[in-house]
Amino acid sequence: MADDEIYCTHYKVRSNDHQQIEMEKSAKYTDLFVCPPGYTVIDQEPPREKFSSRQCFSCIPVPNETEWVKEAYRAHFGEEFTMQKRSIDNYDDIQQLLAPLKRLKTTSMETTNETNEATVKTEAVKPILKPGYIVKVYDTTDDILLNTMVEFIGIYYDHGVVKADSLQSANEMDQDQSLPRKTIHCIQYKKLSHINPLLHRQPTFEKNQITMARQSILSLFESIFPNDKLLCEYLLLHLISRTYVRQPSSAYGKLSLNISHISTEQMNTLQQLLQTILSLHSILSLTVQTLNTMQLMPNKNVGKDDDNDNFLMQTSLQLPFNSHLLIDETKMECGQLTTLGLNNIKLLQDIIRQQTLKYEFHVYQLDYDCDIRCLVISSTKSILPCDVYVRYQSQEEINQITFPDISKEEINNIRRYFTYIGQQLELDQTINDISSDINTYIQEDFVNMRKQKLLTNLDDFHLLLVLARLETLSHGENILTETHWNQAKNLEFTRRQRMNV
Description:
21 strands, alpha/beta, about 500 residues
């Protein structure tokens, strides 16, 4: 949020003829004094009661909004655009949707003709653009916080940002005095819990739709990871996880996932599939070079006098709540990290462990809460501390992936599933009641597992609770039962057996 702005609510204009007619005009929802033809602004100090304040917010479009969401909103609002790309909604099934994308090669890799070996290109890290809009809100509010997704309805000006202490009219305004950011004077706003347009149109979700969507999701995952239902199940639970309780240095409900030993084809196909079914998704590729040169901590240089530079500079980790981040570690090589590289690793560790991100304000640093589902893909076990590590188990390397026949309606059902289950469906809190049957059953089971040394600490027990909660929600239910608890136990103990934990 930028500083509050004091503005003049009313001003007077005077006609240029001999009658010298004066009129009072409102300055609300404007940056400049606008004069009718034949009138001039009266250059005098307004009375004190004609001043008020408005809150100013630096805003950008949602940084990790996936393409199908943008296409859906364009189609809904009838926006005309000249892009020559084919709309996602024109594809009839998942195979058509992903087929052109599966053959794409990553831009950071090239293959030499002589040795046929992959070598990493050296590319400069592109800086994140400065905020594109200043939104001015007239009703004082504490609802709009950092990284909040908000829908604004207001008056848009493309003349750039103008300082409110200027009494010049629009005709006299020097273009060099306006800052290169557009302004929106807010008439009404609404905080958004999600940006999935499909759920806005059809907010209800029937139980049979949830069951079908869950089966379709697992079938898609099993096409990428054949013969490994365990990994597919963990991937599904990871994608619907979210933080529901926060304590100092702890965030409960998250389920960060580390997957290793998968092929490049599987990695690329998974990335494209996530872009197709999730509404907020981004990817971060890690190498020693990028860690040593890339600034991941959002920073604001308040030491500069230039108002054009006095804004928080966004980085690839500054994401809205309920975002998904795929961290690609497969290109990591041996090397030495600089101070910046170590700080970047620390930032990623804080996000995964505590769901907090540190911000730099030149003279001090602040930790802000976040809710980012982190999926780490690595060659071996990741250097980042994920909640769950699953090694892909397959007899042979997967180089050709074929998806089952899934219609466009089923694809949209999957998109609605992840938003509804992952962000809106809440678990019944009966488990917190000490006298409840399920609570008693879990307590007795916990004691038995400790006796059998199946659990070594409370963190293992907490992971089982998180898995049981997600297993319940994934079936569209909000009451934890013995069946879901046992499913979570079997899932985790099977994984430990594979990992030799």
